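Obj.: predict assembly geometry.
Materials: sequence records (below).
Method: joint structure prediction, all chains together.
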Amino acid sequence: GNSVTQMEGPVTLSEEAFLTINCTYTATGYPSLFWYVQYPGEGLQLLLKATKADDKGSNKGFEATYRKETTSFHLEKGSVQVSDSAVYFCALSAGDTGRRALTFGSGTRLQVQP
Amino acid sequence: GAGVSQTPSNKVTEKGKYVELRCDPISGHTALYWYRQSLGQGPEFLIYFQGTGAADDSGLPNDRFFAVRPEGSVSTLKIQRTERGDSAVYLCASSLQLPTDTQYFGPGTRLTVL
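Observations (raw structure tokens):
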């Protein structure tokens, strides 16, 4: 079946540090890949997505590249801010197989200190 | 425009009772999803509707769980004979028709079974 594995948290960084959150996946076919973010007290929000191999999703300074050869979709940001503190979820949707449900990783909590 | 809304935001019930959770999707979204999120975990898929029909209910844990969407808009998740293990945040999401369309999440209903 489909699965997503992401690095365990919490990840604690100082403001302006470089961020990487690793995500690898197992899926049949050609899934679409997503990063969702959950800020404290708020609901899940889509951060970025990529729907085919070698696509790069980007938003709010965050980037992730769909790497089929390594089955990875690592999240990166060059300079984090305190306001980026949140829980980040990697997810996939195997849309081309007809199954549209999102499969999520367990989440990575990011804490950015001033 | 208005996002996905869910009511109630919190529900406390006793073991063995029946509960209903409501989801109002974004207007015009034909696809609707229910997920369940336990503490410290990523959301887990329960059921997906396309229009009025359940297109995929493979995530429902047992026959105590049931969901309807009679007019293709609002959906209700129904849980019979609740158990303490049902305690979680129940999330609803909606999207447009294509498999690659983004799922937009509601704020969730926190269910606590005493």
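Conclusions so far: The radius of gyration of chain A is 14 Å.
To do: check interface contacts against the pulldown list.
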